Amino acid sequence: MVDIASRVHNHNWKIDPIIRSLIDTDFYKLLMCQSIFRNRPDTRVTFSLINRSKDVRLAELVDEGELREQLDHVRSLSLTRGESTWMRGNTFYGKRQMFRPDFMEWFENLRLPPYVLEKRDGQYELTFEGAWPEVMLWEIPALAILMELRSRAVLQTMGKFELEVLYARAMTRVWDKVQRLRKIPGLKIADFGTRRRHSFLWQDWCVQAMTEGLGDAFIGTSNCRIAMRRDLEAVGTNAHELPMVFAALAETDEELAQAPYKVLADWHEEHDGNLRIILPDTYGTEGFLKRAPDWLAGWTGIRIDSGDPASAAEVAIRWWQERGEDPRQKLVIFSDGLDVENIEELHAQFAGRVKASFGWGTLLTNDFRGLAPGDSLAPFSLVCKAVSANGKPTVKLSDNPMKAMGPAAEVARYKRVFGVGEQAAMEVVV
Amino acid sequence: MVDIASRVHNHNWKIDPIIRSLIDTDFYKLLMCQSIFRNRPDTRVTFSLINRSKDVRLAELVDEGELREQLDHVRSLSLTRGESTWMRGNTFYGKRQMFRPDFMEWFENLRLPPYVLEKRDGQYELTFEGAWPEVMLWEIPALAILMELRSRAVLQTMGKFELEVLYARAMTRVWDKVQRLRKIPGLKIADFGTRRRHSFLWQDWCVQAMTEGLGDAFIGTSNCRIAMRRDLEAVGTNAHELPMVFAALAETDEELAQAPYKVLADWHEEHDGNLRIILPDTYGTEGFLKRAPDWLAGWTGIRIDSGDPASAAEVAIRWWQERGEDPRQKLVIFSDGLDVENIEELHAQFAGRVKASFGWGTLLTNDFRGLAPGDSLAPFSLVCKAVSANGKPTVKLSDNPMKAMGPAAEVARYKRVFGVGEQAAMEVVV
């Protein structure tokens, strides 16, 4: 029987929205947002979309009108009652009322600020300007929208059976990966794939596949909407934008050198346990750890997001030992460019020596490599970063020069201040 | 929105019927049925199910109660008005009113006769006894029911994602085959996969994939219900049961030797054009052609259903040349154990020399090899044959001794009468 009402209802959509909820975003954005709302509410920032994969000419693939429709739709969203109830009532990292009433009240009334969209050399220049706690919430929706519009642009060219077989192949691939991961004893792995997912529905399918296939080894998803919908743990801690903005606001080199620790001091005060995770690579892991105060060594763990993950983890282990900490009690979260092969390798090398855990991103939720003609659905490296704070440019060095950003002069200054020398360049896949 | 009515409706099914229509059968069964209805309506025959794959212990896999429910459901079916309209009004092989009014009237009132079901050594013994035109219509439903109940028995043990991925893999495999076939210039291929399909819905999907992927190279399906539903050509001509039963009825060796030609004489009178297709292997292709009357050499083509297809086709080509016929004007239909590899080879060897065409069966509609644990969904060799006529046993020799059937003494007699010597044994895959 045909459900006429459903069909009419579906035809009533003016657009098929990619982002249908303000919490279709990464959990750590909300945690950071609350922290910023509390500590730096008036900081003016600019976030900007950067496509590191120049060969993917987004402005030629994606129609500007459709992009604007999707972005405008996000601006029409506000937190629903059910979403607010979930954030207020749910337990995150074993803690109740992770989100304080004053923040929730502000968030319930929030609409995302305007965007500025321009085209240049086949790319979109998409920027967001305004108060940090508002603008920063654009990052994930902006990325997810462009990723999915690019997918849709390619999928439009395919017939019914090509599509059916495309997803058949993609499902087979994800499930084969899950079957391999299943064989790793004591694995802990989470979905970090929101920002560069093939599509929302596809991420949701991948998360269900992980749930069904991995059981307890699957510890949650960074996507709040999916965590709420599928009754899973929402996971994530903090990101580069915190030290980057704090550093940009520094008046002197001395303040700059202290900025990355200052921001973590706020975090230290706000969070404990598994939320105390160091992200050390913003201005070079080695130097960051060398100059770190002892209270940081007491934190629960570290997240490794650039450079060679194995050597970065070894550096962390040595550091903990030097500071009289027991690495076996420490959490090491790998979250950069993961796929089954390196997950297996890293787990083999570090399981038992530390509490290893994995935040699996793009190659979980967007591994369409080789599945479409001309590899036109392969994931690409799109980021949305804070590029300035109160008018001053931000800088990121990371442990991989290919991931560095900021004006050359500032990059040089940061390298001097943080004592970063030669770095090994590694290709950025996703 | 949930379509409550649909859900309730679906829950109202007492069983999920495998066969939902009397024309969910091969077109050639209906053609032969009409011919038998006209020429041998009173012949009493016994059809019997034979599982050549002894390792597949059907009686242990398939519940007897479920099997009886499915068989009983077939007995409750009668031709619907729409089906009757299609058979009466449609054009088959370019001819209107292929089915004569007297036959249609009989068919519209037909219910299938009773069955006898017993278990022995882990197998089902399923037999049908009665008037030839009625009993012969059990063949395809009986096979399709047992094949699908076996599939269901295995699928019941699998979880949601295993199932999703199973079909994802199977779809990918079929579509990859279609993509390869697409590259063969001038290919003509039809679906002959009803009897040993994985399931009805799966055959229907495979037929749609062939339609979508091959265009004009896909010339139709042997399944009348799917042909009607998908607006495709229904194809097929005649089968071994005709010479087998006619031979069994022969009183003397002389009559026996003539039986295979006698039955085709009836066919010659009833049909012309592309329906005049010789099936020469029932008692050995070589001898059959050698002793064939010249009017048979005038027929449109030949169907090769056992033995080595390439050498059988060469035999036919030489035979036509000896009889002064032009092989390039003749149709050669390959229908035994086909898959993409041998379709490619046979087409390369015979395209241009004859009008080559392919009836693709089990490895189109049931290639689940290697897709389930223990290869428990691999197709197997199940047949349902006329084993006796008016109390006398039937015999089949074919060009492959592995496909021979009948009592040893009778087989020996037939070999003598038809001058069949040593035969090369070939493994029967499906």
Question: Can you tag this structure with a few keywords?
Answer:
alpha/beta, nicotinate phosphoribosyltransferase, globular, homodimer, 11 strands, 19 helices, five-stranded antiparallel β-sheet, six-stranded parallel β-sheet, 430 residues
What does this structure look like?
Chains A, B: GO terms for molecular function: glycosyltransferase activity; nicotinate phosphoribosyltransferase activity. Chains A, B: Pathway: Cofactor biosynthesis; NAD(+) biosynthesis; nicotinate D-ribonucleotide from nicotinate: step 1/1. Chains A, B: InterPro entries: N/Namide_PRibTrfase, NAPRTase_N, Nic_PRibTrfase, Nic_PRibTrfase-Fam, Nicotinate_pribotase-like_C. Chains A, B: It catalyses: 5-phospho-alpha-D-ribose 1-diphosphate + nicotinate + ATP + H2O = nicotinate beta-D-ribonucleotide + ADP + phosphate + diphosphate. Chains A, B: Its EC number is 6.3.4.21. The structure is a homodimer of 430-residue chains. With 430 residues, chain A is of the alpha/beta class. Chain A has a single domain, classed as nicotinate phosphoribosyltransferase, CATH 3.20.140.10. Helix content of chain A is 46%, strand content 13%. Chain A has 19 helices and eleven strands. In chain A, the strands form two sheets. A six-stranded parallel β-sheet of chain A has the order 5-4-9-8-7-6. A five-stranded antiparallel β-sheet of chain A has the order 2-3-1-10-11. In chain A, strand 2 and strand 3 form a beta hairpin. In chain A, helix 4 runs antiparallel to helix 8 and helix 9 runs parallel beside helix 10. The first copy, chain A, is globular. The mean pLDDT of chain A is 95. At the A-B interface, helix 1, helix 9 and helix 10 of A face helix 1, helix 9 and helix 10 of B.
